[in-house]
C-alpha cells in the first residue's frame, strides 16, 4: 500500500509540474439598480458617481488587458431608479427584454445572481425580467414553498475556453480540479 501511495504521489506531483498556468480576471458589478446612464434623475443633472455607461468602458478596458476574463453581476439590478420603477409599472410582456438586460447582454456577462431587490416587484415580474438575460443566473437560497426545491439554478460549473501563458487554448474543465488543503502548501 505504501509503495502504491508513493507512486500515486509522484504521478500527481509530476502532473502538477507540467500543468498549464492560466490567469483569469474576474470582474463583477453589483447594485446597479437600473442606473444605466450617468445621470441623476432625482437631481436632474449629470453625475460621475454611477451609471453602467461609465462602468461599461471600464469593463471593456479591463477585458482588453487580459486573455481570460469572466463578468459577474451580484444583483440588486432591476429596482431602485426611475427606469426600474417605470419598467415595473409598465410591466414586461412575453418576449419583452428589460433595458438592463439589453445592456448586460451587450456586455457579454458570464453569470448573474439575485440580490434582495430583485424580489421587490414580485416573482412573476422577476421571472419575466430574467427571461431576457442571455446568461445564466444562480441562486441557492430561494426555495419554492410548494415543491421544497430551489426556485432557481443553485450552482453552475461552466466550461469556458481559456488561453494559458504559452498561448495554448484549452477548456477550463480540462484543468479545473479541487485540491485537498494539505496539498496547498504556501497558498494561504
Automatic annotation (TrEMBL):
It is an enzyme of class 3 (hydrolase). The keyword Acetylation does not apply. Keywords: Hydrolase, Signal. GO terms for cellular component: outer membrane-bounded periplasmic space. The gene is cpdB_1. It comes from the Bacteria. This is Bifunctional 2',3'-cyclic nucleotide 2'-phosphodiesterase/3'-nucleotidase periplasmic protein. Belongs to the 5'-nucleotidase family. Its EC number is 3.1.3.6. One of its GO terms (molecular function) is 3'-nucleotidase activity. Residues 24-163 form the Calcineurin-like phosphoesterase domain. GO terms for biological process: nucleotide catabolic process. Pfam families: Metallophos (PF00149). It comes from Escherichia coli. PANTHER family: 2',3'-CYCLIC-NUCLEOTIDE 2'-PHOSPHODIESTERASE_3'-NUCLEOTIDASE, 5'-NUCLEOTIDASE-RELATED. Residues 1-19 form the signal peptide. The keyword Hydrolase applies.
